[in-house]
């Protein structure tokens, strides 16, 4: 399924180790992003099927279809031995079971993130974390989550891939898709760097309602306005974070306050996003504690957290304002 | 190209008058939105071609391709006698010229609005105003701009159509496209209504940087935060306004302040957006004067203005805050 271009890039990153990750898991999951995009594209009338998923969200028919695309891909990769998703948040062994010589990976994924902005036809995303283990729970994310994919389902289909084997710096790249699904590496080396004084600076403040009860957050937003930052906030976690990755800088904030609890799922949202941001040279912190997101093991599939992520300088400014403030 | 569904809907709206508008101009322009979406979709690597358009924006290769799609459609509709666009802002007679019995329309269009968010793969739009005249300039927009199309180029392709013949209330509907381009009316009657106390309320504040120098705008934004409105601001005019249309309520604000001049082009952006919002039962005001956008003739293709639009109650609150404030 992969074009020589993607295959060549993956071979240069993984010349000898992890052959099943390189030749099957990553190319097949990336091909699956294109299938999900096609499924969404050919659903001209997006309807709510009237059921709620395990977290109580309204579930759209396209959520179920996207979940099906990824489950089908999992069934075709024997080295993916365990999987869970936001739609079905219980870790389960995959069938068919792996052979003794296989690598063993666990997938944790959110098949279609951004339900509230599907109806107005705004860009949404797919989030996948790949763990080098038979479970994603109670494992140190910084060493055991070795890859992540953010699929961007927009006017085009694109995907951001992060890969970091233990002991390496990690790498982050973007792929584009042709109409037929052929994959090309369009940005081989994504880097988040601190903007210079001349650059437009971007901020993406999630849950701005929380600022009504939290003066530190209100003060921070007012400061961004006064310093003439440009606002970009779609309300879709994937497009909002990918905006910074493609522009090369920016800061995304999902606060946790006394009146507003943590919203993002550690396993399906925070951990993969944090790996991508770190592999691009950025910083991803828990907005409640200021700790690195990837320092903390995930204990439960429904565990939540807050997030500050982006280029280092601006994340540090937000950390000081919200936590030391 | 039109499915019986779209054709039937247009026939019910225009049973006897304007046959060329009903049978050619609207169906062909709507089919063209699908062509533009395909063009954007199959440009995996979006590049800047290094030229600037007449307004000094950076022009992307996809802007040029989208302009070409619409110009080709114009050439196939003899009743479109004049056209100008943001890319080529001079009103020119179309070829082939019309026959004596033809209806006579002028098109004013922005082929691809939202250049700055194309690279991160966020939804963007196409804006088309259709004028029942041989020019769009120096004509009262409220009576002479009789139709408008907002194409939404996102994970799906959708379009909002507004139609208002002089003396009628006007109507606003949404169409969806199959993968092959077949068009279906998915929302036959879009209405903006004032939200009840229980509903989530949305605001979309453009150019928030202007609040740094304009206390009225900063105060308004702070009030929205304190009243726990939900922020949705992509920076793309079409997706931002369509968000309100699809949710049924919401307010979009593009301010004009002493330090920040008007940004939106009256001919290519303000007039078509205002027609769509009014046909959906909403209100579209000039944010500098508080006057109805469609009350004022467009004198020049580069003329700019500010905008407050959405459901009536919230537009009125913003008008009071920014103009009477």
TrEMBL record, chains A, B:
<comment type="similarity">
    <text>Belongs to the FBPase class 1 family.</text>
</comment>
<dbReference type="InterPro" id="IPR023079">
    <property type="entry name" value="SBPase"/>
</dbReference>
<dbReference type="InterPro" id="IPR000146">
    <property type="entry name" value="FBPase_class-1"/>
</dbReference>
<keyword id="KW-0460">Magnesium</keyword>
<feature type="domain" description="Fructose-1-6-bisphosphatase class 1 C-terminal">
    <location>
        <begin position="199"/>
        <end position="321"/>
    </location>
</feature>
<comment type="pathway">
    <text>Carbohydrate biosynthesis; Calvin cycle.</text>
</comment>
<dbReference type="InterPro" id="IPR044015">
    <property type="entry name" value="FBPase_C_dom"/>
</dbReference>
<dbReference type="InterPro" id="IPR020548">
    <property type="entry name" value="Fructose_bisphosphatase_AS"/>
</dbReference>
<keyword id="KW-0119">Carbohydrate metabolism</keyword>
<feature type="domain" description="Fructose-1-6-bisphosphatase class I N-terminal">
    <location>
        <begin position="25"/>
        <end position="170"/>
    </location>
</feature>
<dbReference type="GO" id="GO:0046872">
    <property type="term" value="F:metal ion binding"/>
</dbReference>
<keyword id="KW-0479">Metal-binding</keyword>
<dbReference type="GO" id="GO:0006094">
    <property type="term" value="P:gluconeogenesis"/>
</dbReference>
<protein>
    <submittedName>
        <fullName>Sedoheptulose-1,7-bisphosphatase</fullName>
    </submittedName>
</protein>
<dbReference type="Pfam" id="PF00316">
    <property type="entry name" value="FBPase"/>
</dbReference>
<keyword id="KW-0378">Hydrolase</keyword>
<dbReference type="InterPro" id="IPR033391">
    <property type="entry name" value="FBPase_N"/>
</dbReference>
<dbReference type="GO" id="GO:0030388">
    <property type="term" value="P:fructose 1,6-bisphosphate metabolic process"/>
</dbReference>
<dbReference type="Pfam" id="PF18913">
    <property type="entry name" value="FBPase_C"/>
</dbReference>
<dbReference type="GO" id="GO:0005737">
    <property type="term" value="C:cytoplasm"/>
</dbReference>
<dbReference type="GO" id="GO:0006002">
    <property type="term" value="P:fructose 6-phosphate metabolic process"/>
</dbReference>
<dbReference type="GO" id="GO:0042132">
    <property type="term" value="F:fructose 1,6-bisphosphate 1-phosphatase activity"/>
</dbReference>
<dbReference type="GO" id="GO:0006000">
    <property type="term" value="P:fructose metabolic process"/>
</dbReference>
<dbReference type="GO" id="GO:0005986">
    <property type="term" value="P:sucrose biosynthetic process"/>
</dbReference>
